[in-house]
Amino acid sequence: MIAPADDHAFERILDYLRQARGFDFTAYKRTSLVRRVTKRMQTLGVEQFDHYLDRLQAQPDEFNELFNTILINVTGFFRDADVWDYVNTALVPQLLESRRQDVPLRVWSAGSASGQEAYSAAMILAEAVGKEAFRERVKIYATDVDEDSLAEARRAVYSEKQLEGVPPDLREKYFDRAGDLFTFDRDLRRAVIFGRHDLIEDAPISRVDLLLCRNTLMYFNADAQARIIGRFYFSLNPAGFLVLGRAEMLFSHASLFQPVDLKRRVFRIIPKVNHRERLLLLAQSSREDAMVQYPTHSRLRDAAFDASTDPQIVLDPVGVVVAMNAQARRTFSLSTAEIGVPLQDLELSYRPAELRPTLERAIQERREVTLAAVPMEQGNAARYVDVTIVPLFDDDSTLLGSRVTFRDVTPVKALQEELTHSKQELETAYEELQSTNEELETTNEELQSTVEELETTNEELQSTNEELETMNEELQSTNEELQTMNDELRNRGTELNASNAFLEAVFASLRSAVVVLDRDMRVQVWNGGASDLWGLREDEAQRSYFFGLDMGLPVADLHQPIKEVLTGAATRREITIGAITRKGRTAQCRVNVTALLGADRSITGVILLMEELRD
Predict the structure, then answer these.
(1) Residue 124 belongs to a domain
(2) In CATH, what number is assigned to the domain containing residue 598?
(3) What predicted TM-score, i.e. pTM, was given to this entire model?
(4) Are 589 and 577 contacting, i.e. CB atoms less than 8 angstroms apart?
(5) Helices 7-21 and 30-44, interaxial angle, to 10°?
(6) Do residue 137 and residue 214 come from a single domain?
(7) Which CATH number characterizes residue 103's domain?
(8) Taking 60 as the threshold, does the pLDDT of residue 278 lie above it?
């Protein structure tokens, strides 16, 4: 009996498989994975995960057996016939109508196992376009992680039982018979490309028109399923189709796929438009000759500074006014005579705002400092300005001076006040609506809770459905194994019966008496000659202790010869002793004692050949 699952011990098995074998099983559903590993352990009679890890490390070939046990390769030709009928009658015509004849048709069979699904698709498409066009237009990519299954798929040789799902006309047309085996059509086989592919790790096949992934996703956990579905989205052409297994759904991927036929699990992608634009950055060259100063540029800079609409003054490092524009002179009643005067000597240094501490802070922190919405009286009107002080530095970070800018924000301030007033009015309306909104929120929360419960229930049902389907696949695989074992046992039983009948015929044909004893001196064979000679029927002697039989042969005289043969002291002994036959006649009987050898050449008993000597 297998011990209860130890998560740490089981995790060590997964770590070993990932590090030593390069295969990561952590994306598979844990319950199914534990069940499959446990099944392999039961086959070997191992009860602890740690003990099984020791076997994996000691016997490298065991990995292949475990790998084949975990990957349940249950498949068949045209499995779920109604799905294939829909593919044949609905999907294939749409795919062919939407493309020119020179455009190839690409099919991907993901998780193809031993190839039956890929070859089913090949037969449907060959029937739709003809064998000649099929070779030119169709490419089928069949992938799996199991190399043994891929090797079987590449051989394309199947038994009559495996072809039960193939309609008779397609079997006759696309399979060549050789004895009890059938080989898939070579021309169609060349269009099917088999390769190893990990759905989680490897890049997906692109520009696919028909993607078949049936009863493969259900073995993976939710995160792995989401990653695989995302890859499928980028694999499919906009007009392509995705066909899943009957236990698989896309409830949580409604933004990527929309159902075409939900009952048969057929989906197509929802196209998305990418609105992001890429900008081309142009390199700008700078040359020293472009920085040459011309005499007129100084006047141009002065004119541009003077024409600025915001009042600006420029100070040197010690706070002396070195420039002021026309707007500053008009706004603060200044003149060019104030140029060269320290800022602290001007009324501007403290009205409309105290500039000196702000100027010191900007220079000390070497960054721009702004005094927002400073009130300033201008005539009878109240105005507001943003005062910005920017320290100016040379290329070597030497302080050159500072610039003070006064930006009129009175309209903005008015808008802010209007906005504040509007907010107050809106707050009043908001308070009136708050109660209703709270009631609606309560109702919405209740509805949301109900929706979440329904979604949780749906996810649980989906997970349960996938788990049941997985178990069904496992049971089907086990059933196939048992059927194979039954066939083998039946064949062996038939062979054994034939051998027994042959031996019985041989013993019955011998005129001499033949008796076979095991090591416990129990009679195993008592032929007709023995019955005629000693008067005991076969059913009376069978399984009886030889030296306890009531017959005319003095069996005590055979103790020593039989013992010598059983111990290997002699391979054969012959003795002649007096006896009384079934008819009461006194006669001399010659007894040959020969060793009975088993399959390993060990002595398992003796054979007694008895003959009446006649004068």
Answers:
(1) yes
(2) 3.30.450.20
(3) 0.53
(4) yes
(5) 90
(6) yes
(7) 3.40.50.150
(8) no
Q: Is residue 485 part of a domain?
A: no
Q: Which of 220, 283, 192 is nearest to 27 (CA)?
A: 220
Which amino acid is residue 30, in one-letter code?
R
* Averaged pLDDT for residues 71-91: 88
Q: Is 310 found in the same domain as 258? A: no
Inter-residue contact 109 to 140 (CB < 8 Å): yes
Query: How high is the pLDDT of residue 242?
Result: 94
Question: Residue 251 — very low, low, confident or very high, per pLDDT cuts 50/70/90?
Answer: low
Could you tell me if residue 414 is inside a domain?
A: no
User: Per residue in 425-467, pLDDT tens?
Assistant: 888 787 778 777 777 877 887 888 788 788 778 877 887 888 8
> Total domain count for the chain?
4
Paired with 586 in beta bridges are 580
**Strand 312-315 relative to strand 321-324, pairing:** antiparallel
Asked if residue 479 belongs to a domain, the reply is: no
Domain that holds residue 593: 507-613
**Position 8, amino acid:** H
Phi, then psi, of 523 in degrees rounded to 5 = -75, 125
CATH number at residue 65: 1.10.155.10
Q: Read off the amino acid at residue 406.
A: F
What DSSP letter does each residue of 60-121 carry, written as one string?
Answer: TTHHHHHHHHHS-----TT-SHHHHHHIIIIIHHHHHHTS-TTS-EEEEEET-TTTHHHHHH
Distance separating alpha carbons of residues 348 and 345, to the nearest angstrom? 8
User: Which token pair is 263?
Assistant: 């009952």
Shared domain for 56 and 106, answered yes or no, is no
Question: 73 and 113 in contact (C-beta within 8 Å)?
Answer: yes
Structure tokens belonging to residue 199? 């759905």
